[in-house]
Amino acid sequence: MDNWDDMRVFLAVARTESLSGAAPILKMDPATLGRRIARLERAMGAALFVKSPQGYALTDLGERIRDRAAEAETALTFAFDEGQGASAALTGQIRIGAPDGAASYLLPQVCAAIQAENPELEIQVLALPRVVNLSRREADMAIAVSPPAAGRLMVQKITDYHLHLATRADASPIRLRDDLKGRPIVGYIPDMIFDKELDYLGDLGAGGVQLASNSVAVQLQMLRHAGVGFVHDFILPFAPELRRVLTDQISLRRSFYLVRHMSDRQSDRLTRFAAALTKGLQAEVVRLEAGHA
Fold first, then answer.
1. Is the CB of residue 131 less than 8 Å from the CB of residue 193?
2. In 35-60, which positions are buried (b, 16+ CB within 10 angstroms) versus exposed (e)?
3. Which of the listed residues 84, 118, 147 is the one where a domain comes to its end?
4. Which range among 28-42, 81-95, 120-134, 203-217 has the greatest average pLDDT?
5. Rounded CA separation 105/123 (Å)
6. Whether the model pTM is above 0.90
7. φ and ψ at 87, to 5 degrees?
8. Whose CA is closest to 141, among 129, 153, 130, 151?
9. Domain that holds residue 195
10. Most CB contacts within 10 A, which of 101, 164, 205, 282?
């Protein structure tokens, strides 16, 4: 790779594993990216990706180059941070990985407020039904529901949040656990639960999930039509047609954690952004949960 632009193209495709995924990040069309990758591979005399209908997977050589390119990107970011100065407004691009509950119902308004104070800052939210891989630089930082136990990572607890069973407000009353019998249960697809903290129905002792999705947003839409399932208290203001049930009998508490790569501790820019993000998320959870306290 002769220049930084080649590195940006290579890293974006490597991280998203597709031309269509990298296109909006780089503000280039997929066809152009495909030509750039082909030209890069010709220049290097070797394949960097294995192409298939499922996307672009790195070859062994591609993985080695990705790791070196990510190190160079980190070094360049630190140099950029030094030039900004601690008092300057945040600029550049920052990507946050998050589970879709936080990504859909907390991060939009929190990130909008941060960006309004830093007009030249570009914030990207990567919503994934799995753990974000910071080692591969899929994101600059991630929100997790369990603190990771391995890796060179910095972990900071952001805040607790709560979940309760909910159903349509016009559904027949649920006053006892026995009233749940015969009602479809809404929840995660069991074999796609990527974190033990998302196994809500284990606390309920439910026999199965009749309406399931790996997406919190889809589960919410299901509950708007039928069934009963766990809903984050901070999401309920977005679904006024739902009501909490059995609140005195069944209540869950979980936590959000901010996870960053250990090497980023030297980045004043990312540290300042992380502080603003943490403060904003704490305040937003309190605000949204207040109506159901």
1. no
2. ebbeebbeeeeeebbeeeeeebebee
3. 84
4. 28-42
5. 16
6. no
7. -95, -10
8. 153
9. 160-252
10. 101
Tokens standing for residue 287: 């605000």
Q: What's the length of the chain?
A: 293
C-beta neighbour count of 109 within 10 angstroms: 12
CATH number of residue 194's parent domain: 3.40.190.10
**Taking Cα atoms as reference points, which of 123, 121, 122, 118 lies closest to residue 103?**
123
Neighbouring residues of 31: CB distance < 8 A, sequence distance ≥ 6: 19
Q: What is the DSSP letter of 258?
A: E
Q: How far apart are CA 19 and CA 293, in angstroms?
A: 46
Q: Position 3: which residue type? A: N
Q: Where are the beta strands (DSSP E) in the chain?
A: 49-52, 55-58, 92-98, 121-127, 141-144, 153-168, 185-187, 211-212, 228-232, 242-245, 252-261
pLDDT tens track for 19-65: 988 888 888 889 999 999 998 888 888 999 999 888 899 999 988 88
Q: Among 139, 251, 252, which residue's Cα sits nearest to residue 196?
A: 252
43 lies in some domain: yes
Quick check: 202 pLDDT over 70? Answer: yes
Closest CA to 289 of 131, 110, 163: 163
The reply to whether 175 falls in a domain is: yes
* Best CA proximity match to 251, nearest among 196, 289, 208, 207: 289
Q: Bridge partners of 231?
A: 164
For residues 194 and 131, the answer to whether their CB atoms sit within 8 Å is: yes
Separation CA 230–CA 220 (nearest Å)? 9
Assess whether pLDDT exceeds 60 at residue 2: no
Tokens 């943490």 correspond to 278
